């Protein structure tokens, strides 16, 4: 029997007053400024986790900025010791509530760069991310997601360089690292080749596949990805997003389109997986997606969720608001209400 999918979002919520990305200018670095920032960020991490659990969200990506200048040479403070109590409390909450967390270093963390200085800084940054997750005391199903990097005029050599530099990482980091297909350089087929060689999991991003497709069929991709995940890695992790068609490239949409999401979930239904949404409205679409998969929502929840959209519908057309209000109080599934809202807002 398949387990229930965890569905989550990344980093900074859109509608609640918590954030874990407070920072400051490098020139202002001091013990006092640093500690004020870190303390507030960790406090809000716990606030976000508690809010998520109250709303049945058990998948969350922690901001890379939670420890300001976490991998910068200026930062020689042992924050993992100073905040051991607070980090342990966050980790215990994560474990006790079956939450899964992850981190995703930014575009300047490039493990396959031909520039050794860039590689060394990238390894330092990856080790910082690993130190943070290790400090929470969470197991190795809580991952660090990375892109392969650049091509540098010779893709095969760049892939070999990634594999070579992977061997320079700490054992803990090797157990946490997963790699994801990107929208320009490395297809999921490329990623699978690397993952199978160095024995780490692959993360499949649907939008990146649309923008940078490979020759494999959809079902073949899913099962090839599944086979890279071992028991200790946890359920397969997928990234899901819709494209913002009003912008160029792979910009993420403002909200998840209900019909697209349901089609996607049907396509991966044979695989135990967790789905990270990459979307502008963050937790709002996350709750929406969770509700679309729930056939039996009480009217109080239906009303609460539709209230998030009613002013937007009023601005579009008052008749949209009136009809949606009627739909919410009818016996139709909530997913159909969301489909109507999507239609109005698009």
- What is the third-level CATH name, the topology of the largest domain? TIM Barrel
Radius of gyration: 21 Å
Q: Return the structural class.
A: alpha/beta
Low-confidence stretches: none
Overall geometric form? globular
Please state how the strands of the largest beta sheet are arranged side by side: 3-2-1-8-7-6-5-4
The residue-averaged pLDDT reads 95
Determine the CATH superfamily of the largest domain. Divalent-metal-dependent TIM barrel enzymes
Query: Based on DSSP secondary structure assignment, what is the total number of beta strands?
Result: 8
| Biggest β-sheet description | 8 strands, parallel
Strand content: 5-15%
CATH hierarchy, class of the largest domain: Alpha Beta
Q: Kindly report how far apart the N and C termini lie.
A: 37 Å
> What is the number of independent domains?
2
Please give the share of residues in helix: 40-55%
Q: SSE order in H/E notation? A: EHEHHEHEHHEHEHHEHEHHHHH
């Amino acid at each position: 029997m398949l387990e229930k999918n965890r569905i989550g979002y990344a980093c900074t919520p859109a509608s609640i007053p918590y954030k874990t990305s407070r920072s400051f200018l490098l020139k202002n670095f001091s013990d006092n400024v640093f500690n004020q920032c870190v303390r507030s960020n960790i406090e809000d991490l716990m606030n976000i986790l508690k809010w998520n659990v109250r709303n049945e969200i058990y998948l969350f990506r922690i901001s890379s900025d939670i420890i300001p200048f976490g991998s910068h040479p200026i930062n020689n403070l042992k924050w993992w010791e100073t905040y051991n109590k607070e980090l342990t409390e966050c980790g215990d909450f994560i474990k006790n509530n079956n939450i899964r967390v992850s981190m995703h270093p930014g575009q300047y963390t490039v493990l396959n760069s031909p520039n050794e200085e860039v590689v060394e800084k990238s390894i330092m940054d990856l080790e910082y991310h690993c130190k943070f997750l290790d400090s929470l005391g969470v197991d190795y199903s809580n991952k660090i997601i990375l892109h392969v990097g650049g091509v540098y005029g010779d893709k095969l050599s760049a892939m070999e360089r990634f594999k070579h530099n992977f061997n320079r990482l700490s054992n803990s980091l090797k157990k946490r690292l997963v790699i994801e297909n990107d929208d320009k350089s490395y297809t999921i087929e490329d990623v699978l080749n690397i993952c199978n060689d160095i024995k780490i999991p692959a993360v499949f991003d649907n939008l990146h596949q649309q923008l940078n497709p490979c020759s494999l069929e959809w079902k073949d991709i899913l099962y090839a990805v599944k086979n890279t995940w071992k028991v200790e890695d946890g359920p397969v992790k997928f990234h899901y997003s819709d494209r913002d068609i009003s912008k160029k490239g792979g910009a993420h949409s403002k909200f998840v389109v209900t019909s697209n999401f349901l089609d996607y979930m049907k396509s991966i239904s044979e695989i135990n997986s967790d789905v990270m949404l990459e979307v502008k409205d963050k937790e709002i679409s996350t709750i929406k997606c969770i509700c679309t998969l729930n056939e039996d929502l009480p009217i109080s929840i239906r009303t609460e969720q539709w209230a998030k959209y009613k002013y937007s519908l009023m601005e579009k057309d008052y008749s949209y608001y009136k009809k949606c209000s009627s739909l919410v109080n009818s016996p139709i599934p909530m997913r159909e209400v969301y489909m109507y809202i999507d239609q109005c807002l698009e």
